[in-house]
Amino acid sequence: MIECWQAGELRAYLDRELPAADMARLRAHLQVCGACAELSAHLEQRAGWVASRMDTLSAPATVLVGARPHPKWGVRATIALAAALVLVLVLLPRRAEKPVVFATPPRAAASPSAPAAQPPAAVRPAVIRRILPRKKPAPRAKPQLEYFLALDDEPVETGMVVRVGLDNGRVPADLIVGADGRAHAIRLVSSVTGGK
Amino acid sequence: MQPEELALSPVRAFANPGWFEALFRAHYPRLVGLLAHLIGDRAQAEEIAADAFSKLARRSALFATRGDVTAWVYRVATNAGLDALRANSRRRRKEEAAGAERLRTAAEPGALEEIISRERAARVRAVLGSLKPRDAQLLLLRSGGMAYRDIAQALGVQASSVGTLLARAEREFERQYRVRYGDDL
Fold first, then answer.
1. CB 3.0 to 4.6 Å from B136: which of A45, A189, B39, B128, for a disulfide?
2. Which chain B residue's Cα is nearest to A43?
3. Rg (CA), chain A
4. Mean pLDDT, residues B66-79
5. pLDDT at residue number B97
6. What are the residues whose beta carbons fall under 8 Å from the beta carbon of B157, sequence distance 6 or more?
7. Choosing among A50, A62, A63, which should be mutated to test the B contact, i.e. which has the most B CBs within 10 A?
8. What torsion do the CA atoms of A5, A8, A13, A14 make, to the nearest 10 degrees?
9. Contacts of B43 in chain A (CB under 8 A)
10. Neighbouring residues of A101: CB distance < 8 A, sequence distance ≥ 6
11. What is the DSSP letter of A93?
12. In total, how many domains does chain B have?
């Protein structure tokens, strides 16, 4: 007497998900049972039909027109902006190479009769500033400090605030430099008349 | 078995304190890929998968075995994916119509194939969204190459009944698809 198999077992057989002993028994059974062989072929055909449609989901998802902006893009844009800022800071000349000059122009400009052969390198801004007549000092503009802009997502626990000059020293800014030597935050300092 | 019933399982903390990370590493990428196929939006798939793991982290002490946890994550995530699929359907139809129109007018190379590919995927998603959640989950997990044993674990059924359930799900998928779209691919 031939004992036929259930559709679920035939389906599992097609996926090779039956125990090894059952796989062998069912294989042998399909050789002699036309009904089970027919049902197995039908199930196989349907499984292939469904799989071919399910496979269309595997195509890489395309960008949908007008899709809502994903909230993570805000974070990504911030990271990109921070990376750009870091790049600018790295590419800028260092302060030591070109110091910020806060002194007034040399007096040589006010005395045109001075010999033209005098080398301009002899004029040191710091010295000239000292010999200038001390007028009533103009009120120093209070630096207008901005909020720090984080350059990465890591919280700043400890760090040192370092003032630097951007754009060849013309734009002062404060950096928070962490223990690893990397800048973690930046803020621009506007209306500054003197550096510390 | 519903998550609420699983939550009533006997309390037993897992011996390995790193079990959550191990589970996350083992299943998060697969779950995201599976959900991305289902809803066609990888970013949203990542959100749903992460949310499922986040829920798990908050209630993990309530699960009895590691198998329960894995099953629970897959079930919660794929249910959320099916909900998102249904919620997205109207928006997606508008967007895909607009995208198809743009592709037509752009006349770029491969534009026609792109339109057809989108349309095919949209049909499959529509049919999956109309099935019983377990049938859709079953087809999705199997399509992702998951073994019967893992499918059984994820869906809370006996491994020996996966073949029967899968055959029924495929029959229902074919029926629904033919009713809507005939024999078109």
1. B128
2. B167
3. 39
4. 82
5. 64
6. B165
7. A50
8. 120
9. 70, 72
10. A125, A169
11. P
12. 1
SS3 string, A97-163, reads: CCCCCCCCCCHHHHCCCCCCCCCHHHCCHHHHHHHCCCCCCCCCCCCEECCCEECCCCCCCCCEEEE
How many Å apart are CA A186 and CA B7, to the nearest integer? Answer: 48
Q: How confident is the model at residue A36 (pLDDT cuts 50, 70, 90)?
A: very high
Domain that holds residue B101: 3-181
Answer whether 0.90 is exceeded by the pTM.
Answer: no
Whether the CB of A19 is below 8 Å from some CB of chain B: the reply is no
Q: Which chain A residues have a beta carbon less than 8 Å from that of B177?
A: 53
The two three-digit tokens of residue B23, written as one number: 């589970």
Q: Which of B114, B120, B167 sits opposite A7 (nearest CB)?
A: B167
Put simply, whether B177 touches A (Cβ < 8 Å) is yes
How much of chain B, in percent, has pLDDT values that exceed 70? 74
What DSSP line would sit under B48-81, residue for residue? HHHHHHHHHHHHGGG-SSHHHHHHHHHHHHHHHH
Region A8-15: mean pLDDT is: 96
